[in-house]
Structures are given as C-alpha cells and as structure tokens.
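User: tokens in, sequence out, please.
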C-alpha cells in the first residue's frame, strides 16, 4: 500500500494538509471493518466456526470445519461485499441523509 500511495503523494504534495482528514479516514475505516467482515463470513457456516485474530500482523480470518455447497460458498464469498459495498452504494441514491452509509 505504501508503494501504491507514492504517486498520489507526489501529485498532491502541496495539498496534503487539506486532505489529511480524508486520508486518515481512508486508513481507519478498512481496519475497523476487518472484524465485522469476518463475522459476516462466519454467519454462513452451520456448525463450528473458528475465528482467528492477530491484529499485530493485521490478520483476521474464519475457519469452518464442515463441507459447504457451491451456492453457499458463493453466498459466503459475496456477503461481505454486498453488505459493505453494494448496499451502501444503493442507499446513497436515496438521498443526502443516507450518504454517510456510502463510506
């Protein structure tokens, strides 16, 4: 991520202080959604689910012990993208009072 941000820093080097709040939000929100993202995956399992966390290394993942159908696996894979991506995107079209969900 640091390497990818170098061109942006070079282009906006004079205006970085103007966008400092936005940049901090861009770093904080993905970290805050890591745990709920994995909880959504865990909801798709029927039986035992193990949630492993190692925040020092930035790792959170879910492990299920049962076999899963293809449809259920696709649903599990798409659920977090729907909840944290597509649903807020659709809510943002309802009006300005719902724009905060589009973050």
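Assistant: Sequence out:
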């Amino acid at each position: 991520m640091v390497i990818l941000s170098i061109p942006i820093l070079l282009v906006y080097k004079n205006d970085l202080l103007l966008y400092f709040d936005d940049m901090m939000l861009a770093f904080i929100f993905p970290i805050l959604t890591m745990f709920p993202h994995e909880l959504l995956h865990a909801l798709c399992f029927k039986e035992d689910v193990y949630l492993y966390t190692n925040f020092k290394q930035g790792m959170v993942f879910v492990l299920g012990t049962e076999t899963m159908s293809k449809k259920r696996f696709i649903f599990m894979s798409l659920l977090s993208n729907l909840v944290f991506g597509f649903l807020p995107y659709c809510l943002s079209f309802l009006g300005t009072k719902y724009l905060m969900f589009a973050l």
